[in-house]
Amino acid sequence: MSSTEQGTSSAAPAEPTTAPESAAAPEVPESFYYVHGKDKVVHKVSAGALQHSALIHGMISNLGYTEEQAKANPFPFENIDGDILQMVVDWCNQHKGKPTPPEDTNLPKQKEKLFDLVLAVNYLEIKELLTYCCKQVAMMVKGKSPEEIREIWMIPTDAEDEAAEKEAKKRAGKEAAGETAAAAGDAK
Amino acid sequence: MKLSKFPYLVQKEILDNMKYSDLFLLSFVSKNIKKVIKLSQTTRFRNIDRIVFDMKNTEHPMISIVFGSSVYFIIISSTISEKLKNDYFQLNVSGKLINFEYVSWHCPALAFDPCDRESVFTSIYNYLLDFFGDTIEYEWITTDHRFFVPRVRNLSLILEFWTTGTDEEIMERFENIISLSPIMKHVKTSNWRPAGTINPESKYYQAESISICQNNLTIPINLGRFQGRQAFLRCRTCRISDLSEFLKRWKSGEGFQRLEYAKIIINHPDVPLNGILNEIGVNYIDATKTPPTHTLPKVYFEYDCQPNTDPIISQTYVVRETDNRVASISIQGKALSFGVWNETEEEFLAMVD
């Protein structure tokens, strides 16, 4: 398993040269956690950066892992592609402890990447990033005709929707019939 | 990217970030997506103050959404050019095929044949009513020039009279249009010149709000049988007896029961407005005390105009005999302002500091 150690340099607490007079208590060292996506590449992320994700924040808040325990137990997100998770981690690091700006222009421009990012961010419950992504998705169809919108967002026609609905009904009917037959067999 | 693969809440967030004009176009993509828009945007749509069909410019009507003082255009339009641009597209709007063109205005531009104007805009109205819902007010602003109001439910009419011509023609046209109109929210007559007086029983007086600017006594300052809530008059001449008749009729409860506000400006230099107060008999608040301020949201206000009536702070008031309700009266220069309170005299005086 390789490790990209993302965020290590930016997230590591700076070595204080002289302790400020008012800060008598020693600074608590920042804790780090580890996550990986489908590609198994492990990313080291500070707890501060992970606060953006309501899902991960909820998972780690009561763990009390030591550095070794955290390293040994990376959070697996098998449903998220490695490059997408990398984007998410980068975003969390960039915006750690900072107020989020009203717009984010660094989101992927390619449709499919943005689509995967939206799904990942929604799953990880990163509200601000989800809002940026949704704005970007909305912008894709700004000023487009209905046919262009259909193409961009791959929206089925009414006829396709009706056919899919019919198919789903048929399938559900077959499944129900199968279940009834199985139940009758069991009864015998 | 398949929009339908996103969970509903993500779809909602995407739609929340779309402009009304884009949502309008998106709604034509499929029945299912239209359902999703309507379901997810219920609260947003319900917060719309009104949808305005500004039909004053007969060649370029515009349709906009109004929230407070913000205006968002959803459709602009123009009469069909000899040659439609290559990139026009057709949409089936409430059963009628309508051409749209791309423009750089960031909202769809509808292209219509002037002969087809009525059916095009009636279809658009029906579509928007279904899409945005019937809890919103739909305003139709038109003039007597190429007058047309669709025969539909739920429409508030704003009518402006521009007509010029002989007195008989104008008055006949005026009465004709008024009689064809549904309930009128606001009627505006600008720089009106007809010398004949309008019939006191005219349906015109059923408008919620009227704004009059006239040179003659066409609409008398006693406001005939006005049954609406707000009246704004500016006239070059008037009979002062008409003005006192108006105030006396309100005071006695004989007329103007629904009136909330009136502002009458008489531009003639020799009309002694102050004398009117003694004639009708007014009450005064002690000069050392501060009277309450009367102001109301206007029934109708044009873009760039104040949404509320001018504040009235006056020591002078009258009391209606039938229900003891109070109206503040202020005379400043050539203007008489009249603001009716919901309070009785006792309640009104309790508001005086």
From TrEMBL, chain A:
The annotated regions of Low complexity compositional bias extend over: 8-25, 178-188
Please give the InterPro entries that the UniProt record associates with this protein: SKP1, SKP1-like, SKP1-like_dim_sf, SKP1/BTB/POZ_sf, Skp1_comp_dimer, Skp1_comp_POZ
Record domain SKP1 component POZ: where: 38-96
- Listed pathway(s): Protein modification; protein ubiquitination
Query: Basic and acidic residues bias: where?
Result: 165-177
Cited SUPFAM superfamilies: POZ domain, Skp1 dimerisation domain-like
Q: Is Transferase found in the keyword set? A: no
Q: Which UniProt keywords apply?
A: Ubl conjugation pathway
A Pfam family matched in the record? Skp1
Any idea where the SKP1 component dimerisation domain is?
Answer: 127-170
The keyword Metal-binding is annotated on this UniProt entry: no
One Gene Ontology term of the biological-process aspect is: protein ubiquitination
> Quick one: where's region Disordered?
1-25, 160-188
Q: What does this protein do?
A: Probable essential component of SCF (SKP1-CUL1-F-box protein) E3 ubiquitin-protein ligase complexes, which mediate the ubiquitination and subsequent proteasomal degradation of target proteins. Regulates cell proliferation during embryonic and larval development.
The family this protein is said to belong to: Belongs to the SKP1 family.
What PANTHER family does the record tag this protein with?
A: SKP1
Q: What is the name listed in the Swiss-Prot or TrEMBL entry for this protein? A: Skp1-related protein
Q: Which organism is it from?
A: Caenorhabditis nigoni
The organism's taxonomy opens as: Eukaryota, Metazoa, Ecdysozoa, Nematoda, Chromadorea
Gene name on record?
A: Cnig_chr_III.g8742
From TrEMBL, chain B:
Pfam families listed in its UniProt record: F-box (PF00646)
- Please list the residue ranges annotated as the F-box domain: 1-48
Q: What is this protein called?
A: F-box domain-containing protein
